[in-house]
Write a structure and sequence with these properties.
It contains 21 helices and ten strands. The chain is an alpha/beta fold. It has four domains: 86 residues, GMP Synthetase, Chain A, domain 3; 156 residues, Rossmann fold (3-Layer(aba) Sandwich), CATH 3.40.50.300; 70 residues, Orthogonal Bundle (Helicase, Ruva Protein, domain 3), CATH 1.10.8; 98 residues, Chromosomal Replication Initiator Protein Dnaa, Chain: A, CATH 1.10.1750. The strands form three sheets. A five-stranded parallel β-sheet has the order 5-6-7-4-8, sandwiched between helices. A three-stranded mixed β-sheet has the order 1-2-3. Helix 1 crosses helix 3 and helix 5 runs parallel beside helix 6. The protein starts with 5 loop residues before the first helix and ends with a helix. Oligomerizes as a right-handed, spiral filament on DNA at oriC.
Length: 458
């Protein structure tokens, strides 16, 4: 292979560093890769398969663009395992700063005043009762609880609150237990650092000799085979010793793509608890709790107005309350219903209505000129089955309904039919396939995007 000048290679590295940042460049590239360019491709030497998979999945676009900028034309990217780099990475000291560990000490609190993440401050209702009960049971009797306990739900629905509450309560009520709480990204960073510094044994002792391991955002594992394998071994080793695992995830494990089936099976082997958006009474109670914490005099008509108009999650409720409090202080206005309506007009304009299966079914019938009764029948005609397949896919994507609930709403389909439709559409999108809808042929991806625009979700 004929290499170009070292200046060009240095410029490629500088472009990559500029694109991904110095810290990530030092962690993944500096001392760990060897770049060579010829007329056909940019070849990147890496120390092992794990590095190759990580660079391919996380930085390939940035690498390709960096090479194009320097060379002046697009270049294919090839990765090559170079054993000499592996030997060097074992001998060298780590150059990246150590990943920050979550603080062990809890912030000082006034006597008798619960912390922000105390379980007592978690407002309980039908949408989150199972997750709350499972968390409470774990706190009360860690030795006998389900493991893993996996709590899943969208952003701002209380996953982090519950996980932090479990950690805090275990530390306070079971001081003899060894508890570690961290995000999945922190777990990954600490594993990578341990691997680079030849301290894997130390890392594994740390995470596998615990009584309770709490990991948030496990969807971070998607597409990362090396980390998935390490995480699976960690779960198996920890639970073989009688340890417990608590996990947080954005979606049900069955909906995670590009994840090892063995790991997926481990995730659902214990207790899976779902968090749904709060109902109106819960939203009212959340607003009362938040207002009391801030010593805000929030009238019931204002609470009702906010609860009726902000429905998506707790974070948006709290954000609206923050803005309203700041607005009243700045404008020296009284906190009444008229003020709330005026202050929050911009926030409310951007509120996205909550979708239900019936909403999506109605839109599908409008788009493809179908009789609503027909789409609920088990017809195998393409005119019906193709729109129904997209409807099932989008109902799963944009509503909080379970597979069984979606199937029941669309003509009494069983949950496996909904799962099959979701998987088929996902595969068709990935393979850029076409589908016949009405009187025309669509790219599946284009049909989905058009459908999403009609739903106000594009």
């Amino acid at each position: 292979m004929t290499a170009v000048s070292s200046v060009d290679l240095t410029n490629v590295e500088l472009e990559i560093k500029e694109a991904i940042g110095s810290q990530r460049f030092d962690l993944w590239f500096s001392g760990n890769t060897n770049l060579v360019i010829d007329r056909d491709a940019l070849e990147i030497g890496v120390p092992n398969r794990f590095f190759r998979e990580w660079l391919e999945s996380h930085f390939q676009d940035e690498i390709r663009e960096a090479a194009r900028r320097v060379v002046g034309s697009p270049l294919p990217i090839r990765f090559r395992i170079d054993p000499t780099l592996f030997q060097r990475s074992r001998k060298e000291q780590p150059v990246a700063p150590k990943a920050k560990r979550p603080a062990k000490a809890l912030p000082a609190k006034r006597p008798g005043r619960p912390s922000r993440y105390a379980l007592s401050r978690f407002v309980v209702g039908t949408p989150n009762r199972v997750a709350h009960a499972a968390s409470s049971a774990l706190i009360e009797n860690p030795r006998e609880s389900y493991s893993p306990l996996l709590i899943h739900g969208g952003i701002g629905l209380g996953k982090t609150h519950l996980l932090r509450a479990v950690e805090e309560a275990l530390r306070g009520q079971h001081a003899n237990l060894k508890v570690l709480a961290l995000s999945c990204e922190e777990f990954t960073n600490q594993f990578v650092e341990a691997m680079r510094s030849n301290k894997l044994a130390v890392f594994r002792r740390k995470v596998r000799q615990l009584d309770v391991l709490i990991v948030d955002d496990v969807q971070f594992l998607v597409g990362k085979r090396g980390i998935q394998e390490e995480f699976l071994h960690t779960l198996n080793s920890l639970e073989a010793r009688g340890g417990k695992v608590v996990l947080g995830c954005d979606v049900h494990p069955r909906r995670l793509g590009k994840i090892a089936e063995e790991l997926r099976s481990r995730f659902v082997a214990g207790m899976v608890a779902r968090l749904d958006p709060p109902n109106q009474e819960m939203r009212r109670q959340i607003l009362r709790e938040k207002a009391a914490q801030r010593l805000m005099d929030l009238r019931e008509d204002v609470i009702g107005f906010l609860a009726e108009n902000i429905r998506s999650n707790v974070c948006e409720l709290e954000g609206a309350l923050n803005y309203l409090e700041h607005y009243c202080e700045t404008m020296e206005a009284s906190l009444d219903l008229e003020t709330a309506r005026g202050a929050l007009v911009e926030i409310l304009r951007h509120q996205v209505p909550v979708l239900r299966v019936g909403d999506i079914r109605g839109k599908a019938c409008d788009m493809f000129s179908l009789n609503p009764k027909l789409i609920s029948q088990r017809s195998r005609s393409r005119a019906v089955s193709h729109p129904r397949m997209l409807l099932l896919y989008l109902a799963r994507k944009y509503t909080q309904a379970t597979y069984s609930e979606i199937g029941k709403a669309i003509g009494g389909l069983n949950h496996s039919s909904v799962i099959a439709a979701e998987r088929k559409v996902t595969k068709m999108i990935a393979q850029d396939e076409e589908i016949v809808l009405g009187e025309r042929t669509w790219k599946v991806r284009d049909a989905i995007e058009t459908f999403e625009r009609e739903l106000g979700r594009a």
